[in-house]
Design a protein that fits this description.
single chain; alpha/beta; eight-stranded parallel beta sheet; 10 strands
Length: about 325
């Protein structure tokens, strides 16, 4: 039942002893890999989320991805979701990102996993708006600045991705993400309605709504209540927000779930109430002893789920 809500480790740091330079979102070499997978298993995750590049990207073959999956499964942490993002409505990047999305759907089919997750963000393309940086009052790539053509172009590619996903038994999720057309609840729901695919859903990443503008466009409670019925995968992270109104700027500190500004007790209740039965995908911390910090988040989530089952949560 609910208590068994599956928890995936969408790790954002995989630094383990002995140290190798350059590791963050990718898998370390041995002996680090075995150490990492064992620790992930010990914490109690049901699997990990990986990027399409880890499986070889465009060069991936059925044999190569299944071989890596066997290694992960034997180590106690199979890949349960695969991500491939990128803006789908700009002439500079949309073709490349479309091909990447379609290839990722193919890889997910070979792996026999359920979820391909994509964030529809891209590079900053306007000098006046400045670089992509969270906490500003205006943001490149946002739904505020998107045209109806941007929505239509994105929806048409997502519809095709959904059709390909249906053929291999996979679902595609649109991650609510800063600097993207799907950066809040209404824009995401609008995009899903325009896509109109039985295989395309939302990933209601509340952290990204909070981590976007100097002042969030909506409360986290409003956002999760609206998005829960549309959701098939769920990235969870939290931040502490430090707002400097005189500068129209906010700074953010990434923290473990119980320590941040998002009420995950409310959010988990809202998702369970909407019948959500997918993964709770913990987006790990990015500094320090990430394994211990993230284990604290897992324990917190398991505690809330237990309270829901026992009827003592609210």
């Amino acid at each position: 039942g609910i208590l068994q809500m599956k928890i995936a480790y969408a790790f954002r740091r995989s630094t383990v002893y002995p140290y190798q330079a350059g590791y963050a979102w990718v898998l370390p070499d041995e002996p680090g890999l075995s150490n990492f997978l064992k620790k992930v298993n010990d914490v109690g995750y049901d699997g990990i989320e990986l990027g399409y590049e880890v499986f070889g990207g465009r060069e991936a073959t059925k044999d190569s991805v299944q071989e890596l999956q066997k290694r992960l499964t034997d180590g106690g942490a199979p890949c349960v979701a695969i991500r491939a993002g990128g803006v789908l409505c700009t002439p500079q990047e949309s073709d490349k990102n479309r091909d990447r999305l379609f290839k990722t759907v193919e890889i997910a089919g070979w792996l026999g996993i359920d979820i391909v997750n994509g964030a529809l963000s891209g590079q900053a393309r306007n000098k006046t708006l400045g670089p992509i940086r969270p906490g500003k009052a205006i943001q490149p790539g946002s739904s505020q600045l998107a045209s109806i053509d941007d929505f239509e172009k994105t929806a048409s590619i997502l519809r095709e991705a959904g059709s390909r996903a249906a053929d291999v038994g996979v679902d595609v999720t649109v991650e609510v993400h800063q600097h993207s057309i799907a950066d809040n609840s209404w824009a995401t729901i609008k995009l899903l309605e325009m896509t109109d695919s039985p295989n395309v859903f939302a990933n209601p990443d509340l952290g990204n709504i909070l981590w976007h503008y100097d002042e969030p466009e909506e409360t986290m409670e409003e956002a999760i209540s609206a998005l829960a019925p549309y959701s098939k995968y769920w990235h969870c992270k939290s931040l502490q927000r430090v707002h400097i109104p005189e500068l129209d700027t906010t700074y953010f500190l990434r923290v473990a779930l119980p320590d941040g500004d998002i009420d995950y007790r409310f959010a988990i209740n809202a998702m369970v109430d909407a019948g959500y039965d997918g993964y709770f995908a913990l987006e790990g911390t990015q500094t320090g002893d990430h394994l211990s910090k993230d284990a604290k988040s897992v324990a917190y989530v398991r505690g809330i789920l237990k309270e829901i089952v026992d009827g003592t949560s609210n």
